Amino acid sequence: MLLRLLIFLTICVLIFLPFNWITYRQLVRIHPRRRRLVLGLVIAGNLMWPLLPFLRVSNAVMRFLRATLGPVWIAWTMFAMLYALAMFLVLLAWIPFRRRGTFAEFARWPSRVFVAGMVLLSIIGAYDALVPLRVERVPIAIEGLPASLEGTRIALLGDLHVGLFTRPSRLDRIFSTTDALRPDVVLLAGDLIDDDPYFVPKLLAGTRALSTSTPLLAVLGNHEMYGDPNAVIAQLHGSRIRLLVNEGYAHRELWIAGLSDYAARDIPDQRALAPDFDKALAGKPPASPVIALAHQPRVIDEAKRRRVPLALCAHTHGGQMGIRPLGWSLAGVFLRYHMGLYRAGPTQLYINTGTGYWLLPWRPGMTPEITLLELHAVARSRGHAVTQSRGEKPGDAPERRNGMKRLTVILALVLAMSVSAQQRRNPFQYVEPPPAPVKEQRVIAAVVIAAPKPPQVVTVPPARVEPAPPVFPYHFIGRFGHDEDPIAALVSDDRVIIAQAGDTIDGKFIVRSVGLNTVEIGFVSHPSTIRLQLDGWL
């Protein structure tokens, strides 16, 4: 275990140290009068690294250090990575103008704008994490649902992460809002506390706002596993929260199979708590439909194999940043299943994007969520089941695909506006080399055969010159989408085009193919083909 931790820390240092160094060097170079402030931020942002091996230590000192240094560590690490990337892009923009001034002079205003934008985003993110509370109402269609379960209301919460700075008033609001929805049962999808079992009493105190007649069920999450899961199990035994550790719970004719967390498989002393579907389904009546409750979306694979109609989980937090109307979240960059409702074969999967936050109170665009699921038979909710599910096949996910296309257009517009005024001439413009001047060719054949006829003069017409293809007026600025269905973003001075292979542009051009870094363009009225890449012609 210690060796794995040392390896993990070494990898983290090798990855994040360059970002820290680049960010520090560029900040003091561009803003030399802020050297002391930058140095203080660098030190404060990295104080957490030496404490990582002691995160499982449960005492007042570690609880305080983790709650105070942890948010600063996360915030600085994110800032350093983004700032280093932003300055790299500014460096590329500076290269054509390097003779007009130094990089520090050129980058001063872009750096100020970036820092100001991050401060503004931090304020918005903190407000979204601490103040609003979103109720997501989701109808679920289940085939063969007994009539007695028609309209059953299930409230799903996840990732409360109750810790040192969790406000009791916030917990009271979460559970009172849940109670006002009048659910038949309330489910907590793991990460109840922030590692330390010390915070279980605070969690239980918050549940007092929920009616005592409403069943309150929960499963373990990875953060319970990182702390002391056995202590959590012991404290919740016989409490208001019924903790399901690979066991089932019968709610009328509905069987709720509560699974332990997958993190137990990777922790040697916790493997006895690894998820076990067989135990969770033991004792289930044959006719009862099953709802699998787990913390991580990894449950979908086994739920699909067992033809479980519905699986519920959390864990992703939606990346704690996203655009809900577009169905996009930061977690979706890394995870296949990251937010909302999906269909995978016979199983529907719903992912709650988190009712709390982890370490850093920052959730711009991804406000804390309480999900209210309402069960219906397929015949009565078929329309909802089809239109609100985002499945594995492209045809099953129109909302998600349209959302990604809208996001692509927005990104393309942002990139288009960043094109410098000095570079209005299209660097990708097709320039046909000027043809050599063709003179009129005349062949004069003088034939004298001792005849009275005058010599005959034969005139050959000028050779035909193939017209040049039309100029392709667009830049290739990005590639989006999946490998099997890539999308190219093309931009001119006044237009943004989103195109795929086979699309026609302006009636003159045809997109032949979209590669990783290149786009092949054909002409409707000319046999030539051109290939564009992100930084010029191939």
Describe the protein's architecture and organization.
The chain has twelve helices and 23 strands. Strand 8 (290-293), helix 10 and strand 9 form a beta-alpha-beta unit. Residues 380-401, 418-434 and 436-452 have low confidence and may be disordered. It is 33% helix and 20% strand. The protein starts with a helix and ends with a strand. It has a seven-stranded mixed beta sheet. It is globular, with a radius of gyration of 31 Å. The chain has helices spanning 2-30, 35-45, 60-94, 103-130, 168-180, 200-206, 222-226, 229-236, 277-281, 299-305, 378-387, 398-417; strands spanning 134-142, 153-157, 185-189, 216-219, 242-243, 247-251, 254-258, 290-293, 310-313, 322-323, 328-329, 340-344, 347-351, 369-377, 390-391, 475-480, 487-491, 496-499, 504-505, 509-514, 518-523, 526-533, 536-537. The protein folds into three domains: 2-129, no CATH class; 133-396, Purple Acid Phosphatase, chain A, domain 2 (4-Layer Sandwich); 468-538, SH3 type barrels (Roll). It has 538 residues and is α/β, with parallel strands linked by helices.
